[in-house]
User: Fold Putative MarR family transcriptional regulator from Metapseudomonas resinovorans NBRC 106553.
Amino acid sequence: MNDIQPHSSQPDTAAELKLADYLCFAVYSTNLAFGKVYRPLLDELGLTYTQFVTIIALWEEDDQTVGGLGEKLFLESNTLTPILKKLEAQGYLVRARDKANERQVRISLTENGRQLRERAFSVSLAKACGLGPAEFARLQKEIVTLRDNLLKSVRGE
Assistant:
């Protein structure tokens, strides 16, 4: 499998590949850069990035099951449960058994969790990326397509 970014000076052999030629490294290092942009906000909120995206998913759709939330965040329940426990201890959400199906746990934001939304928009990601609105939207769509294609590949589709 070839993991290099296509460009005109593509190396002829694997021995000539440099770290910067790997698409996976470009994505990985970009994720680290996103973390640095978000760090001041996350520190102020007392959240990790994963806790933050969990809250965002609940802003989008409150009162979700743990399973549904895990699917949306691409997290297994053994990873998600400690995150939810921490957010509950911080007063941002509540976990409760589903009345219709006791085997399921539902997650809902508290008022404190909903109020985080206003503070969270203090980071201008578009500005930090240096992209115009159309470029930003195009890149986001292309990255989602890349992610979805990679997941299909893993599932053998």
In short: The longest strand covers residues 93-97. DSSP finds seven helices and three strands in the chain. The radius of gyration is 19 Å.
